[in-house]
Amino acid sequence: MTQRLSDRKAVITGAARGIGRAIATAFLREGAAVVISDVDGEAAAQTAQELASEGQISAVACDVTDPEQTRALAAESVRRLGSVNVLVNNAGLSGRGAITEMTDEGIDRLLAVNLKGVLLCTRAFAPPLEEAGNAVIINLSSQAGKRGWSGLSVYSATKAGVLGMNRALATELAPRVRVNAICPGHIGTEGMAWRGWEAAAAAQQATAAELGERFAEENIPLQRLQSANDIANAAVFLASGEAREITGAALNVGGGVAMD
Fold first, then answer.
1. Is the pLDDT assigned to residue 150 strictly greater than 90?
2. Catalytic residue among 155, 165, 181, 184
3. 210-231: per-residue pLDDT in tens?
4. Is residue 155 among the annotated active site residues?
């Protein structure tokens, strides 16, 4: 590895598994010191233990919808790392359903985790990030934040909200903190799209992988699904000095599903 992040001290939320874990792994391999957090503290601790051979990593349990827990995460991360100059707001929930079928509880939960959680974490970490300088916030949005799909109105609203916040904070926190977003596509092994293919597989006498490949061929210009590592590679770039002149951007990593 090139050690592109050897000067980085990063906190990654929702990192016990999936995209967050892939980002943590990539950061460690590029030389960053990392604190991962997750609402499932035991899973986060297990992930940190499994990745310990890759570099300096530790875990802190945190519910990003709780203001006090996000403040505690910021304070503990600074204590462990000395300072923090990268925050990856990755924690999020998927949620599918027609708007007339979404419950009050379902709507509130998606808004709380996907949007309010990003705001709370950013508020908690903004002071140490500004103090560190040359700092970066990376917000995980979605292709659904840029274009519409039936059954994703609430989820899309949360992810579009992240993009609006992303643009505003890029101005508000400049010049000491760059703020960018990543909009993942259809992840080929996990996540909302994968669960949908798994649910439909039996009825169509196919496997989830076959349905995913068929979807990619018919709907994605590059005709392939994305992986968690594809998203991690984008995060490494945005956290590195190679992206020093990029702020307020929303990077599509979706094979061409969204092109703006």
1. no
2. 155
3. 887 888 889 899 999 999 999 9
4. yes
In a shared domain, residues 161 and 215: no
Instruction: Indicate if 180 and 203 belong to the same structural domain.
Output: no
Q: Please, which pLDDT band fits residue 194 given cuts at 50, 70 and 90?
A: low
- Per-residue model confidence as pLDDT tens digits over 35-82: 999 999 999 999 999 999 999 999 999 999 999 999 999 999 999 999
Do 148 and 22 lie in one domain? The reply is: yes
In a domain? residue 125: yes
The span from the CA of 113 to the CA of 70, in Å, is 12
Residue 2, CA distances (Å) to 27, 84, 236 in order? 11, 21, 11
Does residue 199 lie in a domain region? yes
Say what the pLDDT of residue 196 is.
Answer: 75
**Cis upstream peptide for 127 (omega within 30°):** no
Structural domain that includes position 209: 187-225
Which structure tokens are listed for 6?
A: 């050897």
User: Do residues 85 and 9 touch, judged by C-beta distance below 8 A?
Assistant: yes
Nearest to 91 by CA among 161, 25, 141, 154: 141
- Distinct helix (H) and strand (E) counts, the chain: 9, 7
Partner residues linked to 177 by β-bridges = 135
Q: Count the domains in the chain.
A: 2
β-pairing, 9-12 vs 250-253, is unpaired
Per-residue pLDDT, 192: 63
In a domain, 48, yes or no: yes
Region 76-91: what's the mean pLDDT? 98
